[in-house]
Amino acid sequence: KATSWGMTIDPDIIILKPNAPQTNVYFNGDGWSHRSRCDIQGGVLYAGPIPRDFVVPGAGGGTPNNAGAILQSDGRTIVQGQPFTRCTADGPATSLVRYPNADIYTDGIVGAHGGSGMSSLGGTLRLGELMKGSGPVRHALKINLDSVNYYSGGTPASYRWPAQKADGCAPGCYTGNNPALKMGSLVALNTSVDLDKLGFETEPGRSLAWTFQNYGAYIVDTTGWSVYAIETEQSPDGDYQTQFSQSWGFSVDPNSKDTPWSRDMDRIFLSLSVVDSWNEDIWNRVVASNGNEGAGGGQPLQPWAPPY
Fold first, then answer.
1. Are residues 191 and 272 in contact, defined by beta-carbon separation less than 8 angstroms?
2. How far is CA 79 from the centre of its chain?
3. What is the secondary structure of 221-235 as a DSSP string?
4. What is the chain's percent helix, strand, coil content, to nearest 5?
5. Is 76's pLDDT higher than 70?
6. How many percent of the chain have pLDDT more than 90?
7. pLDDT over 70 for what percent of the chain?
8. Which of 13-22, 33-42, 244-253, 294-303 shows the lowest per-residue confidence on average (mean pLDDT)?
9. Does pTM top 0.90 for this prediction?
10. Cα radius of gyration rounded to whole Å, the chain
11. CA distance 167 to 285
12. Do residues 18 and 75 lie in contact, with contact meaning Cβ atoms separated by under 8 Å?
């Protein structure tokens, strides 16, 4: 059980503006040191179309992971790096690490979440999702837990598919005792869980639980303290944190554990199970079924999303 904060978010910096000015992203080594991340400290890591007025504040009191995803001008290639920062409008953009490019027309697995090497784009709570009147979120999510929860077995046992790796501190910082709970694990609310009996106090909490039960969430990073985190969009189109509070009238990331939303997050996270049978071989089989087989081997709980 997370004890330090009611709920937290981990912003994914999503820039899908292929006609914006081509902009260099330079090396900055500040990382998670609590230094600003603002200054150019090395050469160009990558480049992409970024609106001139788009700002991503530097690190200060917090050190968000800021996994970045930039859609290139070809409309399909995603360039990814972490932590993406741009402290002033039309100023330099920086990152510490560039990760492999991704193609939005392929599996979308690899990306700039440093704890797992998984996507900066797929699984993010996007603008307009989980808002009043929006209906349920119909895709898998991404979450982070404190590293003490992850299985303590040594690398490569510290992670599982679809994660490409584990945290650099692993296995030493992973002290959990559940061999199934690793970086990259798919977690979900079992279908045997009656959501109506969990006592949800907020509408978005109940809706989010539905998504955890029907689609699940992948563990993609580490929080570094005793909190839950969920990946949310920060982009030229807006900030999820702001939009959520405007829609519901309360914060998506309250510091207090004693709020209806925080208690709902405990109801979800403390009820999650690992989908231990999920692996690359089964994923390939499910893909080949063309929507006729679900992740558990039976009928899918929800239909596949339509093609692009």
1. no
2. 16
3. EE-SSS--EEEEEEE
4. 15, 25, 60
5. yes
6. 90
7. 98
8. 294-303
9. yes
10. 19
11. 29
12. yes
